[in-house]
Amino acid sequence: MAVLFAGRGDTQPRETIVIPDELRTQAGHAYEVGDRIAAGGNGVVHRCTDLADGVEYAVKFLLDLRVDRRARFERERELLADLKHEHLIVYKDAGAVDGEFRKRGSNTSTTKSVPFIIMVLATEALTDLVRRADVPSEVFQAQFRGLAQGLGELHTKAIHRDIKPDNILVVGDRWVLSDYGLCDVLGLPPEERVTPDWQIVGPRFWMSPEANNRSIGRDDRIDAASDVFQLASVFWFVVNRSHPTGILSRDDWSGPEALFDPIYRALHHRTAIRPADGRAFADEIEAAIVG
Question: What is the pTM of this model?
């Protein structure tokens, strides 16, 4: 049996979910659940192994089973399955498994269906890569081009809204954008796209100005240009190993001179000055690098 829980792994969880070691997916494949990799507020990620060929993947379980969270998880699954780009996380399979929910200190349990998504397995998050050592210019320039192009592809179907170093993963020789749990999927009925006014949307410390303004009561619109700001913040972090807080200047920049202007514009407080979406940002990055 495997034990799932939310939150940090070094503290005793308030609730655990016990599931079988073996998962069966919608496509009829079987996977064995392995070690815990990471967890967030709504779910947890484990390693898993395809029992047919021994290949390892990552499996994301939804642990917050409220109706709206289930609907969001299903939209994430559909989006993952629909998107195809080498700098976007690769979808493999999905399904659901019965889990036995046990609260800490209680002798009773309840059984609920726990949905899961299986994806390609990453080596590490970009956060860990940057913390460990400087990234060579020839490496990050190639990855910036790819990530901006990947964001452009995502913007044909959704606004990400949660771009941060932890959500960019290293898969082989590529950096890929992942975690579509907060995506605003285009084409849905308006009532399904609206985020409640009380709900803060965006990655803590990496929010666009609009997302921060929403958190203090303004009704600012979070759009594709907001994603551009967040991705540019990550680029700044990779190059300078610092957060782009405050008033920035060229003196704060340690990367290639040509890259400063497009990233600096993408970090502007006014959305009208930033590239409008990922494709526009990718064009500016491409022009800066290739010339």
Answer: 0.91
